[in-house]
Structure formats: structure tokens, C-alpha cells
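Let us begin with a simple case.
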Amino acid sequence: MLRNLAQPILLVFAALGLTGCVESASPVTQATPMEAMVKVGDQSQFTAMLQTLLDQPPGAFIVIEHPETQKFVQFAGSRTEGLLLDLPTHTLTTDETERARRLLQPRGATELQLGDDGKDQPSTFQLQFNRDAQAAAQLCRDIFQDIYQYPPDRLLRVSITID
């Protein structure tokens, strides 16, 4: 898990501002974004990209999104912290949020409230994968197929940002 809520909130803000480059995600350092288009069903490509995070210093992350709907999932990762899935609920419909709970909670995900009062505040689902890029990639595929209900041939934009 991330050490505190500040980092997942920064990931959420970085994803919200994402239209091609996320240099604004870090006010101190210049981020290096890399992008690719990958099909929902191409688990091997997701695995390779997530494996890339495991070779990076802390602060690297991947945002995987459908460019037209801006539905996304993100992973933070590094060689010292492993992989952490982060799925914010602010872009999910009520039905997608319920599907997310059914898919993620049995696998050990935690739903964290991002606001102070808890009621009607956005939340985020988080799940630690340690160094298991293959399991993270499989769940990523399941999120797009089961929660967002996209077909396997739907193209997604993958943005990797390395500080």
C-alpha cells in the first residue's frame, strides 16, 4: 500500500489532467511520459508495461484509459515498492462502482474514502500486487471487460510516466 493518501490523490489529479503529457503531476521534477495504444484483451502487452514499472525508482506510474470516454485505471510502481492498482470512483457510474466492488473486494482490494466527511465523497479502490505484473495485468483486463464492459478489441491509451 502507499504510505499515505497524498500519493493516490496526486495520481488521481495527474490522471484528470492527462491529455498526452503529465508534466504538471510533479511540480519539482520533469516527468518523462511514454504512450502506446493497446487492445483491452492484450494481456501480454499490459504485463510488459507493468513490468517496466518494476524497474523504475519510486514515483513512476501508468495510466490506462479509453481516450473517448476517459474511463481509466492506474498503477503506481517501482523496484522498491512493487505495483499498486488505483481505481478512483469519481469517473464510475453507480453500476460500474457496484461491479468494481464485486470484482475487486473479493481479491483483497480496499476502498479508501478520499474526502474528510466520508459521505458522498469520492473513493478509490487500491490493491497491492508486489512484483506480480502478470496478475496485475489480468486484473487490468478484467476491469476494462467486466467493470467498463469493453470488448477485447477496444483500443486503450497507456501512458507511462517516469520521474
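The second case is a distinct protein. As before, the sequence precedes its C-alpha cells.
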Amino acid sequence: MTALLALYCSSINGYALLASAAESQYAARSAFEQMGADIRGSSSAEVLGDGEILVLVGPNATLRYYAENNCLYRRFTTSVGTTTIPMADSISSLHFSIYDSLVVINLGVNAGGYGQEVTTAVNTRL
């Protein structure tokens, strides 16, 4: 009976770990999709602070992506004002680089002891 209870507790802990990792991966993928759409819609891209901040200039707005306190943020600035939106948490690393019009994004996610590094590249279209 004790062995069965130990097996049950172990499986519950494993499920919680995998659920946390899946949620963090989903948030990172959603952030990549939003960043990709913003990059494709921008007229110019610039990297600041040794690759820590991505600045995108579009026809009507300026966007900044950056990580702070293990959270990825999107700061949207227009002539009306500025809005900062948290996009993903459990961010362990974030680095941007630009090669001509190609923006490369390296994002590290760490949730519940499970870590993953994801990289993508997007071209500006405008």
C-alpha cells in the first residue's frame, strides 16, 4: 500500500512539472508569434544594450521587447501614449541580433527545473 501511495505522489509531482513546462513553452511560442508579426510589420529594427532590447519602428507606433525580472515585456508607444504588456514569464535569457533585415531572437525558458533555449529568425517586410 505504501509503495502504491509513493507511486501516486511521484506521478502527481511529475504531472505538475510537465504541465508547468508545457505552459511556459506555450507562452514562449505565443511571444514568438507576436514578435514575428511585429517584426514583419515594422519599417526598421534596432538592437540596444548588447542585444537585450529590440526596438521596432512601424508606421504608427514604436515597439520595444525586453526581459525584466524573468518576464518578457512588449512596450507599445504611439502618439496617444505607452502601454507595457507582459508576454511570457519564466524567461531565463533573451538576446536579439540583427543581420541586414534579419532579426534573430534567442529565448531561454525555465519552468519547474525544465529549461529550453529556442531560436528563431524573422525578416522585416516594410
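The mean pLDDT is 84. The radius of gyration is 18 Å.
Keep these points in mind for the review questions at the end of the chapter.
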